[in-house]
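Researcher: Quick sanity check before group meeting.
Model: Go ahead. Protein one:
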Amino acid sequence: MKKLAPILPFLLLCAAWNSHAQSPGATAKHPLSEEVQTVFNQLRAQDSLLFQLGYNQSDTAQLRLVIHDDFEFYHDQSGLLESKELFLKGISGLCHMNYKATRVLDLPSLEVHLLKNNGNLYGAIQTGKHAFYGEEPGKPRYLTSTATFTHVWILENGSWKLKRVLSYDHVVPGEER
């Protein structure tokens, strides 16, 4: 171990770089198949619509296109929203807070698992971690919480629709779990 001590920081840096160089959700032992990689990329784009436009910019028109009509949102702190309309109303409420809320995806944590019926793709489970920030004029951006999410996406007429959301394990800076 003493022989490794001088180069340990270098080895840790190489390991960290290598983990980010691979596709998120893939490991050296388990590279993503072409089908999974395709769905991963499609859902990463949908995630961007959902959060970059929907959450970060309160663009409910874009959200309406991404969210399934039979939508449910389960949140470990603010409860259950049992409809698409309740969720969209909540997103609209973000515009009326005393700070601008933004969400940042932890891309290396993102994973996708396909759902099939007799070999036919009908949906996918997407999991990952994200961080939420507050922004106020004249102040630096600050972390408000981190959380884990699980999304169930359904392939409907060739389009991915978000049907179920589990948002959990929220941690507020300075608070113990």
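Researcher: Fine. The other one?
Model: Protein two, sequence then structure:
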Amino acid sequence: MITNQRKACADEDPELFYPVSYSTPVGKAQAENAKEVCSRCPFRDACREQALALEGNAEAERRYGIWGATTPAERRAIYDTRRKTALAA
């Protein structure tokens, strides 16, 4: 798809999207700052779906970073919910 829109993260430091820890105050603040950038992005949903496709069933150590305004734990919860819904259908 050709578009003249740019990813909101294109001009950001990539390290912003990879907090060392999500449980420390600094890591939580960094994750929230990254999510704020994502919230302005026209590709947020596509980015999140790409991360879910790549990481959805990956082991915990393979999941990382803020993608589509979600943390690895948030994406895992989305994946698990979708999987349970699909199995119930």
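Researcher: One line on it for the slide.
Model: Helices lie at 25-39, 44-55, 72-88.
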